Each structure stands twice: as C-alpha cells, then as structure tokens.
Amino acid sequence: MSSSDSHKAWLLAAVCLAALGMPLSFTGPAVVLPAIRDVLGGTPVQLNWVTNAFMLSFGATLMAAGALADAYGRKRVFLLGLAVVALSSALLTLAPGIVAFDLARAVQGLGSAAAFAAGTAALAQVFDGPARLRAFSLIGTSFGVGLSCGSILSGWLADTVGWHAVMLSPGAVSLVALGLAAPRMRESRNPQAMGLDVPGTLSFTAALSLLTLGVLQAPDSGWGSPWVLAALAGALAMGAAFIAIERRVAHPMLDLSLFRFPRFVGVQLLAAAPAYGFVVLLVLLPIRFIGLEGRSALEAGGFMFALSGPILVVPTLAAWLAHRFSAGVISAVGLLVCAAGLVWLARCAPGTSLHGLVGPLLLIGAGIGLPWGLMDGLAVSVVPRERAGMASGIFNTVRVAGEGIALALVGAGLTALVALQLGSSASSSVAVSQAAQRVATGDLAQALALLPGMDRAGLLHAYGAAFGTLLCVLAGVTVLTAVVVFLFLRGEGESHGAEAALKCSTS
C-alpha cells in the first residue's frame, strides 16, 4: 500500500470511529435516564434536555462547523471536535446536578458537530468517484453499527459498571479516533472559503433553540402560556431572519437556491424521514421498558437491538434493489414497511414480552433500513465537491435538526395524550398535567404520588393507550413522507445514482 493510500485508510478509519461514537452519545443517555434522574434529580423538562441539548447543539452548528473546517483546516477542526467530545464525556460523570449535566451535553453536541462535519469534508477531498461513494457508505454503516449496538452496549455497561461508564463510552471512542488521525491525517482547506457566516449561524441557532424551548416547555406551562408563545414566535421570527440573511449574503452558509431542484429537496426529506418513524423510538422505548415496565437496562438493550439491528444488514438488500429500482421506489417502500410496523407496535400493551414485540420492532427497523442505505450516497451527489463542508452540513443538519425537533414534538404529544387519558381519573388538572409529564419521562413512582386514586395498572393502561395513539399518528406522518419522497426521487437518474452509491455494499 502506498503512503497516500495508507493515509486515506487511516483517515477513513478515524472518521468511521467518530461516526460510530455519535449514536452512542444519543442512545446511551436514553437507556440510563432513570439512573440519571435518581442521582441528579430534575424536572421533566430538565430531563428532556438530556437528549435535546445534544441534538440541538449538534444540529444547529453542523453547517457552521463545515464552513469553519473548509476555512481554517479540516484536520484542525476534526481533532478539536474529538477532544471536546472526550472532555465533555468526562464532565458528564462529574456534573453536580441536572442543569450542569444538560450544559455538558450541549458541549458534547458541539464537539460531535465539529468532528463529523470536518471529518466528512476531509474524506470528500481525498476520495473520488466510486471510492468516495464507498467511503461515505462506510460512514453510514459505522453510524448504523453505533445505533444497532449502542442500546445493548449501554445496557450491559449500565448493569455491570454503572451509568457513568455509558457516559464515558463516546469519549473513549473519540480518543481512539484522535489517536489514529493526529499523526497521519493531512491538513486541507478550501482556498475560496469565506469563513463563518456569523449572522446566518446565529439566526439559525436561535430559531432552533427557541422552537425546541417552546415545545419542551409547553406540557409544563401550557401551549397558551406567554413564555411558550413568545418562544415559538421568536423561532418564527429568527427563521424568517435566517432566510432573509442567506438570500443577501455573498457566501451564504446555506445556498437556498438548491431547494429549487426536486432531487435536492427529496434527499433532504429523506434525511428527515427516519426521525418520526424510528429515531424517536430510540428514546421513548428505553424510557418505557426501564422506567415504566421495570425491566433491566440490559434487557431493554436487547429489545432495542431488535429495533435497530436490521440497519446492519438491510442496506445490503437496498444495494441489490438499487440495480432494478429508483431511489424513490426503494425509499417509499421502506417507509411504508416502517409505518406498518408502527401500527403493529401500537397494538402492543406495556408489559408485552419480547416474543410479542420482536415482530413490529424488526419490521420498523427493516423498513427504515432501506432508505437509510441510500441517504449518505445520495447526499454526496447533490452538492459539488468544492462545497464539501456545505454538503456535509446541509444533509446532516436536516437529519439531526429534524430528529431534535421530532423528539421535542413527540415528547410533548405523548405528554398531552397521557394527560387526556388521565383526565377523567383525577379532579385536579394540575396534578394530571404533572403526572403525565412524569409518566412521559419514566418516573412512575412520582406519577402515582401525584394521583393517589390511581394504581400502577391503571396508569400503565393510560400510558399504553396514549402511546398507541401516538404511534398511529407517527405511522400517518411516515406514510405521507413516503409519498412525497417517491414523487421527488422516482426519476430514472436517481436509480442510477442509488446503484452507484451502494455498489460499495456489494463489493
């Protein structure tokens, strides 16, 4: 192997490790959230920020991180991001309270955004043609391995070592990636890069932050609360400001003209599609299995592996299908299969055995695995090579920001549905609202204390009915997304693009 090939291989290994560690940062806290709550305390809103702080900072800064990497050096930003992930992982285990923990999670999201954006931008510069597509497919595979194995690994660590080990695992992976990249990765930058679009970055981050804040606070304060309305109005104003800024600046962070092309829009919709049909379950189901049903973290991890495990193998099927069908057809069929699994899961009451759950969980995971296998390869083809930072930023920002918004909306929706189910069982609407929030975050004991006339079986029944309704709504959203993605990505050109993007899965 030549020196150049050796450097490419080590760089690819380092970026794949970074991609592997990111889903560990996402799935791990969901598995050990009850343990975090027992140690650090916190209100339901503060506990929701355990996940959302990471997703928000990650999604809001990806495009900015890509621009910084192009301007100031991809190696520099990549290594800095990995170091921040490792440091914040250690800080999580030392947090004196839930607020400090949430802040450290936000810092961890910043580091992950820097590492991911800079790493993928660097790969886009050293790989070309089929090799480039193969490299990006391996990143998607690594991310899928992290999602598939993250829950069961976190469950094993939580049961054998404790929740601190779960928090340290992304940092450990980042340190290994840093050790591989530091002596071997070559620096690169875009000579035409204009640096950071500060007004665009600030307005975009403010819009996402205010939207997330408003949605998370709504179950506690009410949707008509002045604070909630102000946050949502501020999000709308900042979103409009962002669009206005990006239209006027000479070198925008986000080239809005790209949204005139149906294929580009279709790929972005495809990036957001798994959020409502799959990603939200990676957070909601561990809370249900551990906090409400009383299963062990390891047992819950086994359940979650049934959901996420298909992502390890189904993309290979997508590669075979890509020789015969367009990306629109493959993606739409996958999303429809996922929707069928969601409807099936809606009929499974709390306490259902693994034997009863494995069918719908596998169906959801297999369905989402089809578009999952196409996304990264297609994303590389929609933006020119010289805009590598933007290519990474746009696609992953849509994916991660969509997941963060989905988590906030779905969490608020579940709380409202639980409160609706409990409404006739208690005279105090305040008690019902507070109990619903506790149930949604897996705190069954506190929910029962707030509703003295309610027993555990009744509370679980109310939760099961609310959860089933929520899953049917998510299935409807997934079906609608399938139709739109099919219309935008059904062309013959996309068939060849999907085939090329996935040749690496069969080679």
Question: What structural keywords apply?
Answer:
single chain; 507 residues; mainly alpha
Helix content: over 70%
Secondary-structure-based class equals: mainly alpha
List the secondary-structure elements in sequence, H or E.
Answer: HHHHHHHHHHHHHHHHHHHH
Strand content: under 5%
Number of helices: 20
Oligomer: single chain
- Distance between the ends: 19 Å
Question: What global shape is seen?
Answer: globular
Uncertain stretches of 5 or more adjacent residues: 492-507
Q: Give the strand tally.
A: 0
Tell me the major beta sheet: none
Instruction: Please compute the radius of gyration using only Cα atoms.
Output: 22 Å
Mean pLDDT: 84
What would you say this structure looks like, in words?
The protein is mainly alpha-helical. Helices cover 82% and strands 0% of the residues. The chain is globular, with a radius of gyration of 22 Å. 60% of the residues are buried.
What is the strand and helix layout of this fold?
Blueprint: H1 3-31, H2 33-40, H3 44-72, H4 74-94, H5 98-126, H6 129-160, H7 163-181, H8 198-221, H9 226-248, H10 262-292, H11 297-308, H12 314-321, H13 327-346, H14 354-380, H15 388-422, H16 429-440, H17 444-450, H18 456-489, H19 492-501, H20 503-506
Helix pairs in contact: 1-3, 1-5, 1-6, 1-7, 1-10, 3-4, 3-5, 3-8, 3-15, 4-5, 4-7, 5-6, 5-15, 6-7, 6-11, 6-14, 8-9, 8-15, 10-11, 10-13, 10-14, 10-15, 10-18, 11-14, 12-14, 13-14, 13-18, 14-19, 15-16, 15-18, 16-17
